[in-house]
Design brief:
By secondary structure, this protein is mainly α. It has one domain (about 5-75). It has three helices and no strands. It has helices spanning about 5-10, 15-35, 60-70. The radius of gyration is 20 Å and the shape is flat. The model has no long low-confidence stretch (mean pLDDT about 80). InterPro entries: DUF2281. This is DUF2281 domain-containing protein. It comes from Cyanobacterium aponinum (strain PCC 10605).
Length: about 80
């Protein structure tokens, strides 16, 4: 089985949501590849140093955020 056939076979088993995620990722990879081949990648970097300087995040804050993010995990597929 070729790589293309294997990818198609795996793709066909995915839920519509996962298929969309895979398409989005493939488009990202294609865009990244195009940018690199055209030499459009810049050496400019954006830094976020200091952005969180005065923010205090507690363990309770992290626990609350985890609960909010994963509250519907059973529905993800």
């Amino acid at each position: 089985m070729t790589l293309e056939q294997l990818l198609i076979s795996k793709f066909q088993t995915l839920s519509p949501h996962r298929k969309q995620e895979l398409l989005d990722f493939a488009e990202f990879l294609a865009q990244k590849s195009d940018s690199q081949s055209q030499g459009k990648l810049s050496n400019n970097k954006t830094t976020i140093r200091g952005l969180w300087k005065d923010v205090v995040v507690t363990d309770e804050d992290l626990d609350e955020a985890k609960k909010a993010v994963f509250k519907n995990i059973s529905e993800w597929d």
